[in-house]
Amino acid sequence: MHKKKEKTISSMLNHCWSFVQQVLFDPVLYIFKRLCVVFMILC
């Protein structure tokens, strides 16, 4: 019983983490790519 609850919490954390990655890291990656392009153009 206790083990099952741990697993549920773990899967919830996993789900949250993938959501955070999607929401935070995608825009950051996009901005980083744009900055690289601008940097290449300027240099």
Automatic annotation (TrEMBL):
Give the top-rank taxon of the lineage listed in the UniProt record for this protein. Answer: Eukaryota
Name the chain's protein: Uncharacterized protein
Source organism per entry reads Helianthus annuus (Common sunflower)
Q: What is the lineage of its organism?
A: Eukaryota, Viridiplantae, Streptophyta, Embryophyta, Tracheophyta
